[in-house]
Fold this sequence. Notes:
The structure holds 2 protein chains of 2 kinds. Chain A is mainly α. Chain A has one domain (4-436). In chain A, 70% of the residues lie in helices and 0% in strands. In chain A, helix 8 (163-193) packs across helix 16 and helix 10 (242-261) runs parallel beside helix 12. Chain B is built from 9 helices and 16 strands. In chain B, a hairpin with a 2-residue loop joins strand 3 and strand 4. In chain B, helix 1 (3-14) runs antiparallel to helix 7 and helix 1 (3-14) runs parallel beside helix 8. Classes of the chains: A mainly alpha, B alpha+beta. At the A-B interface, helix 4, helix 6, helix 7, helix 8 and helix 11 of A face helix 1, helix 2, helix 3 and helix 8 of B.
Amino acid sequence: MLDPLSVILWSFLGIAVGVGLSWIPGFHIYNIIALITVVAPVYTIMPVEAFPYFALGALVSFVYLSAIQTVYMSVADESFVFMLFPTQRYLVLGRGHEALWLVTLGAIGGTIILVTLGLTVVPYIISPLYNLLAPYVVWFLVLIVVFMFMSEWQKMGDREKNPWKRLAVAWTQNIGGIIVFFSAGILGFIIMNTGVVPAEFAYVRLTPMFIGFFGMPWVLQNIFSRIIVPKQRTEDKVEASPYNIVNGTISGAFGGSIAAFFPVITGGMGALVAGHMVSTRGDDTFIVSQGANRILYYVGAFFLLFVPTTTLRRGAGAQLVSSIYIPKTWAEFYYAGGVILLAAGISLIGVVYLSKIISRIITGQNYIRVSIIVAGLLVLVSYLLAGWQGIIILFVATLIGFMAVVFNTRRSYCLGGIIFPIAVSMTGNTQILLHLLHLTPGF
Amino acid sequence: MRGWIHYLSGAAMATFFPVLLSDLRLGILIPIITGVFGYLPDFLDFKFKKWLFPRHVEIDPAPIDPKTKVAPKTVRINELGKYEDYQLIAIRGVVESVDEEVEDRIVFTVNDGTGRVKVEAIREDYQRLKNIYGEIKPGIKMFIPGYKIGDPSTGLRFVAADAPHPQLIASKIANAIDRAYEENKLIVTKVYNIRLPGDVYRRFLIHYDTPNRSIKVYMGPIVTTGGIPIRGTDTPEYRKVGEAMTKHPFVKLYPRPTVIDAFNGPEIGYRRTKLPNGREVVEEVFIPWHRGWSHSFTGGAIAALLLAGLLLLVGYPHWVELSVAAMLGWWMHVIEDQLGFMGSVLFPPFQKRRVPGLMIGPNHYTAMNFATAWLMLSLIVWNINRFTPTISMMISGVAAPKPVPLNDWLFLLLLIWPSIIIYAVGVWDGIKFRRLYRKYWKYYALMELSEDMEEIGGL
């Protein structure tokens, strides 16, 4: 087991990687963890016991710092996508820094909730709760997916003069959503069940698909939107009532916890459910909830790896790290709590100052040049992680991801890429579907 | 209640039936239908009925531009006559001449190649133009949002403004009310919202001044989709309020203000109705396509019968339990909605009008929502726990112990106490609100009495 000083040192290294890279558009910390796991074996870089703390430090700082990508580097105009995200709206109004503060406040709240409950209640309730609910996981998962489809607000069609035209236009979006979900599902099914990705890349075979679903369409949207970012105000203050901040934090923490506990359910899906339960309304509340949600979803799920009373592994980060080393002791568990607080503190300082710098740099800019560079980087990462097959998967996934933008539907339908194959597998239908699609089973 | 709460309530109903839980545990997912039934009333209304419901009057204060998908729509000057007075539109052209200029008012002529129009800007609107273009003089190119008044035959002018004038909305609503009274039928008015660049919305409020038979519309600030006003975007006083009188009396029974901002503008129905005192007035029916058959116990029972037939057809062995659970899910939706303000038509065709809601927790919407969600989650957990031995017996022939080894009722109490407390607060809040509501009606009744006396020369 590592001594406390080594824990701090390796955590610092993780934090430095997270702070240094997480603000780059399209970057995801899992790509770095995957690269370390696959391309540069961990034991050549650090003691294997240090890897969980390195990853934890990197993950916490990623959650804090990646808000910069979300706030400053995702641009769109309302003729291109019908509804802007609240953070995009803040950016258009010159309040990007304020939006960043709101995300960060949510993240701070989420961190406090995570560490407080994580170190006290979680080790004792997690096992009975899991035993109680585990047999019904597929039910919960499919329940949430069906609700996503049923509850999507139809954005278009209201101004059509003919009632049937109104109905048809409104439903275009929903049908588009169904197409996106099942296209993504079939792609995910092929990747997970056939040998399309070489066996040596098995650990990270889904990464190019996710880059294609989410990262690449985002970059392409930046290129097509050609929005010029207005001057940003950088005062350290927010316009939000304490009630909204608390409401957003609780909602986000709740949604993130659901996503962290149940397999396959993502932060976005958890947020949808929690937003309805806590009745989140308003841009400020929503943005705060995003910060808390991401902490609980990413860090909370990863933190379960350290809980000595359970063997739960949730999220790609935990899967990758546990393939190298699984923390087992109470001491490692408490160290992890400390690392989360340390990383959150450093990331908080980093995010505020970096936000001020970036908000000045981006004023008056559009993102075409930087977006093209990022697109190139994403292609490179896909190649490194899954060879030329990774680039083909990236291309197909990008088309599907972009389809969600074109249909003005939920981008989270791309999660069909993982939900669909897992639901098929959990209900014992994988072989039937392989046969129907004339596919040969892989590794 | 929010959609997920209804859906969750429907899902919770399945857990009261061990055979359905057993199916779920075996990966047979058909019982998901109970959740679907829990949400179906809103799904039918919002995804189908809303689009197909007839609209008799359309009020579009700010047509959207087909290219930018936001208001104001840029129009040619020779086409200005096609638009209604006070609608927010925009023109783009070159200043030909400045015809009149005093301290806080300017009149100038703009030509866009298709025609020319006199543009008038006063006070804040004049100042805004000066902030953007500096001195307004012949030759400069301008993009001017505003509204037109008059028509080409009688003389048309264009008023610079950043919002439509609320008079358009007030007049059309007053006309719709009179039409509903005179034609004695439901007149549905579609009020479009005002979507502006940056995905923000101009808020406006419709106030029904019942005693004075006046419709007042207040044009408010720009707000985000979350309803947060953006500072410094309020409209100037001189075009903040529009007012129109109706010939016939009207009443608004739904005790919430009609505020229109983000997402879609609402459909508002007006219907002639008889008050308990025999007086005929026009009643506002907010989103008239909502909370009818779909939100009734009758509708739930019929839908469950249809489902039972379908399940029998596909040979699902637990069709009785699933149909009953689905019906309970639908009914839970009806009951939960009945806790609020609007109410529903509970037993059509025996009832034709909405039964007003119980108004529980009017000031604690978020808490009530959460309490219901928590209650349903608790019921799911409680049922799964207490039925675990039965289900494991059904599946494997061996009764597994309960994951939480507590007395069932004690466990239920431990789970649901937060919901009980919140509901108790909600009931108390509802009692206080209803007292206030009664006071309002007393006031209204007095005003109505004065009006009647005035008609017969008593006052």
